[in-house]
Design brief:
9 strands, 36% helix, three-stranded mixed beta sheet, 2 domains, 219 residues, CBS-domain, single chain
Length: 219
């Protein structure tokens, strides 16, 4: 089974700023490079944190008398509004992934940490890239023929050693339908589960019969 890993989806040219970068330096970097976030790194290239447009917004919200009538900001918002350097403004510590992580591993970390992006570091914890939610979703742009070919060759043939002619595979907009028969009933959920792990698959529906019910414990 092959899976697209983070190294194939990440952006390698990461916009970075030092910890002593000023507020205006950061805004300038965001605008010049047309990105929504920058990484804060030390002199050795180790990531310290991330500054997104959302981290800078409290500074704007702190301007003007009109905003005084709004509900009082959360403590972290007040801290952000008072910050003037990258070290004071960044969200830290940096949430990082490895280049060889699968899309599923990166997506689980993003979801658990509630972040929109992960910094990617090598074995020496040096920044080598950045991957966003949009990058991870690119696997769902795989065409149906590629998905079908991978299921037939990798799942049915090489992994399960099934006769591909015994199971037909239809893929439409990433939705897989399996029809046919396998030798044992216990293979049905295995086939379904492995097909679901193929990159780009949105859903799997199976209409598989079996020759032998090896899950019947009553016999």
């Amino acid at each position: 089974m092959r899976h697209r890993d983070v190294s194939r989806l990440m952006t390698r040219e990461v916009v970075t700023v030092p910890r002593n970068a000023t507020f205006k330096d950061i805004v300038r970097a965001l605008r010049e490079h047309e990105v929504s976030a920058v990484a804060v790194t030390d002199a050795a290239g180790h990531p310290l944190g991330v500054i997104s447009e959302g981290d800078l917004l409290p500074k704007s919200a702190d301007q003007g008398d009109w905003f005084r009538s709004l509900p009082r900001p959360e403590p972290w918002e007040s801290d952000k509004a008072a910050g003037t350097t990258a070290e004071e403004l960044m969200s830290a510590p940096a949430i990082c992934a490895r280049p060889d992580w699968t899309v599923a591993e990166a997506a689980r970390l993003m979801e658990s940490q509630r972040v929109k992006r992960l910094l990617v570091v090598d074995d020496a914890d040096v920044l080598v890239g950045i991957v966003t939610r949009g990058d991870l979703l690119r696997i769902f742009l795989r065409d149906d023929d590629s998905i079908r070919g991978e299921i037939i060759a990798d799942v049915l043939d090489r992994t399960l050693h099934l006769d591909p002619a015994a199971v037909s595979v239809e893929v439409v907009d990433g939705q897989v339908t399996l029809r046919g028969a396998v030798r044992f009933r216990s293979l049905v959920p295995v086939v379904e589960r492995l097909c679901r792990t193929v990159d780009g698959v949105v859903r799997v529906t199976q209409q598989l019969a079996w020759e032998t019910d090896d899950m019947d414990t009553g016999r």
